[in-house]
Amino acid sequence: MKVEDAVMENFSRFRELGEGLTPFAVILRICLAVLCGGVLGIERGKANQAAGMRTYILVCLGAALVMMTGQYMFVEFNSGDPARLGAQVVSGIGFLGAGSIIVEGHTKVRGLTTAAGLWTAACIGLSIGIGFYLGAIISTAFIYLVVSKFKVISNHFTHNDMWLRLYVEFKSVNNLLDLYSFLDGSGMQIGDVVINDEHSKKNFNAIISVKNMQNRREEEIVQCLQELEGIKTVKIIY
After folding, report:
1. What's the alpha-carbon Rg for the chain, to the nearest Å?
2. Is the dihedral of CA 162, 37, 117, 105 positive or negative?
3. Which of 24, 98, 145, 203 fits a 20 to 30 Å CA distance from 15?
């Protein structure tokens, strides 16, 4: 019991230091916002999303600053609603989230997870800004778990209907025709194709959307494509 009492006493002291708008509390909230936003942003960066670590940090930090500003105005001027500015963040973050959503032809909408992540990062920042540290930390852990690990579970139930985006580097345009033939013969439906010609036609690459109709593993698809003649690199873009 003595150990538990000591732990609770230290926790209470730390909690008191983190309350209000003392210099320690302000620094703590800013650092925690950077940490939580960075954790979520790193995962999105690994998924090749435009909104990565820096974007998430700025969103979370900005939301925390807005919440602290509302609290400061309420304490210093003894007027207004400290939650009013935070409410504007929740609704206003939509413009940034909408900008991360991309519609690719008729096959796939990308960026929804990133947009939702930006919104939740703002909510985490608001929690940190008002001093709700426990809720912010637990939410960060669960959100990271959802965006990084739940994709496997989601793909398990929607695998047959999932569109894959393949980044392919090849030697010439003729090799792309061979790739089409292989995909068609493998029972995969070809969707949008974006071809990029670089370095004076010495390097070709394309982003191809294919529908996995045969329930093949992603690693198997990549390995088969890499064995085709003229294909340099094959990557799946998430």
Report:
1. 24
2. negative
3. 145
Query: Whose structure tokens read 């920042």?
Result: 125
Domain ranges of the chain: 2-157, 162-237
| SS3 call for 198 | strand
3-state DSSP of 4-64 = HHHHHHHHHHHHHHHCCCCHHHHHHHHHHHHHHHHHHHHHHHHCCCCCCHHHHHHHHHHHH
C-alpha 214/C-alpha 178 separation (Å) is: 20
User: Per residue of the chain (238 residues), what is the pLDDT tens digit?
Assistant: 566 666 666 656 656 666 777 888 888 888 999 998 888 888 777 766 666 788 888 888 888 988 888 888 888 777 777 778 788 887 777 766 666 655 554 445 567 777 788 888 888 998 888 888 888 899 999 988 887 777 666 655 555 456 777 888 887 777 777 788 888 777 777 877 777 765 545 667 888 888 776 667 777 778 888 888 888 888 877 6
* β-strands 203-211, 189-198 pairing: antiparallel
**Residue 23 amino acid letter:** P
What span, in angstroms and rounded, lies between the C-alpha atoms of 140 and 147?
A: 11
Q: Which CATH class is domain 162-237?
A: alpha beta
- Which own/partner contact pairs does 157-161 have at CB distance under 8 Å and 24+ positions apart? 159/212, 159/215, 160/212, 160/213, 160/215, 161/211
Nearest of 196, 210, 208, 204 to residue 230 by alpha carbon: 204
